[in-house]
Amino acid sequence: MRSMARAATTTDAFNAVAEPRRRQILDLLAGGEEHAVNDLVQRLGLAQPQVSKHLRVLREVGAVDVRDVGRQRLYRLNGQALKPIHDWVSSYAHTWSERFEALDTVLEDLKQSEAAQKEHGHGHQ
Description:
single chain; 2 domains; Arc Repressor Mutant, subunit A; elongated; 3-stranded antiparallel β-sheet
């Protein structure tokens, strides 16, 4: 049963990034620079085995690439693997834009109403 849950995590970018520590790793790699495991360990304040475990999951879904340089393994972000997440979230962008525009309208109406009250002396005590 455990292998099924692990398989779901390691084959799906959504599940892989659901874990907050893995998102932190992706955030650190988002600058485009390569980072060694020890650098990530230091920046995250986690134990090396934990960081390595998270990197393995991210590597298995393709979200990070790794290359060996001497005795170091350097990790970098592979944004293409996160494209399904981007595409899914983007499908909601239009709805969010409409709602934010509606909210802007309500806020503007409130500001105008407040300004009108002050003009007519209702806002002063």
